[in-house]
Predict the 3D structure of the following.
Amino acid sequence: MTDVDEEQDHLIRLLSPTVHVPEPARAAGEDLLHAILDTGAPATNWRRRLLVGVPVAAGLTVAALVAGSLLTAPKPANAALTFTEGDGFLTVTIKDPAADPQRYRDELARRGLNIKIELVPANPENVGKVVFEESGAPGLEPIEDPGRCTANGSCQVGFKVPLNFSSYAVVAFGRTPLPGEFIEGGSTEENAVGGSLIGKRVSEARQILAANGMTAEYRVGPKSMAAPADQVPGDWIVFDTAPIPGNIIVLWSSADGKPPAPTGDDTPRPPASTRPGAPASTRPGASASVGPGASSMPVTSSKAG
Amino acid sequence: MARAPSAARFEALYRSCYQDLLGYALRRVDRPESAADVVADTFLTAWRRIDEIPDEQARPWLFGVARNVMANHQRADRRRADLGARLRQELAGATTIEPSVPPEIAHAFRALPEGDREVLRLVAWEGLSADELAVAFGCTVNAARIRLHRARRRFAEALRTPTFTSRERSHRD
């Protein structure tokens, strides 16, 4: 690192916000540790990973939860995947993200490689990029194009695999969605609409969605329970959103626009009990109730400070 | 009951990186409560993939997961699990104070693409080396170095380019 770099880092450090974490959050951290360990031993089949926005290094896939519906069969078109063989490796990059994946699979199978190529609907910046990779053993190396990175760091446009790779792998490239096809995690536009609703009243959110030809689904209460529209008052405030298939935005809302605190029981609270002015408000900073993942933990009464 | 080696490793990893990950998340999310979900998702992923975490590079690996968690809000799935519920509640009391810095620096930084900003923040705020950046981004060391180099160059250019505000200031001064 040069002096100039050091000077830059110093300037950037000046921009770092200072965070003050209340003391109970440390205890909650212990709570979380045990809750995670209580989810059970690591599963051996935990290898399928969505990599939207994140490239893959050999033997290292960065994870996000992925719905099983991701790997759906795309429509065939002209094939255009490039295979280059040399030095005991096969290099695979994509030229036409609308091509038929079956041909790629055949090409790989012909070389004795158990590697499945998928094409999945993706946002424009991820078209032609590797968005998902799963492998039974290390061996796949990313081919990157640093000139084509997405805003959040995905540069992988292909992969390189040793010809003697004996395990299995699934690699998904992003392709242009078909008209009306749902992009896992939502399209840029859907996320923009969803994001714009946060902090708005439910009544206003409904109008905005209608104006965009979209509809709402609702989640309420500490357990994030589905609720019909007529049980979600128009004056509630949206605190979170997520696009789902069918041109639908899921709205999480509450009377005060804050995520409800967990209650610790499994009974969904009726929406009426958290209307404005009702006694069952969820006040941040109040003594913590026990969350669903931590039913054995004592209730802490320490004050945030 | 004796714990499996993987549980012991996870616990050690959790204890050594929890504060760093929480700070990382808190500095990047709009609401402090959201940081609880980022931390919970990140460590849940780490636990489930404990055998795949590189021994010497666990910390940047976790940053890589956290980045991805923030980029892919699978909120519905997460809320069903709701592991971070208590932490989310406690973090409602967390405060984030934006620093007071010369506006030229803030302008120059804001003018950069988000990808550049994140590279620079990971280095300056989280203390990642170029090699560790490669782990966090899941790219090759060479690609990470190129990205860092380009981000530094663009930041330097942005600092040299007077913004509207800084021109105004210098005029006034």
Q: What stands out?
A: The mean pLDDT of chain B is 82. The two ends of chain B are 70 Å apart (CA to CA). Chain B touches chain A through 90 residues (CB under 8 Å). The longest strand of chain B covers residues 95-97.
